[in-house]
Amino acid sequence: MMVAPSQMSAQEESGFQKFNVIEDFTDNGFQWFRDAQLLCAGTKEKSNAMTIGWGGIGTLWQRPALTVYVAEQRYTKKFMDDSEYFTVMSFDVKDSKVLNYMGTKSGRDGDKAQALGLHTAYTVNGTPYYTEATMVIECKIMYAAPFDPQYFKSDVPKNMYGNFPAGVHSMYIGEVVNAWKIPPSAVHRTSMVSTPYSVK
Question: SS3 for 69?
Answer without folding.
Answer: strand
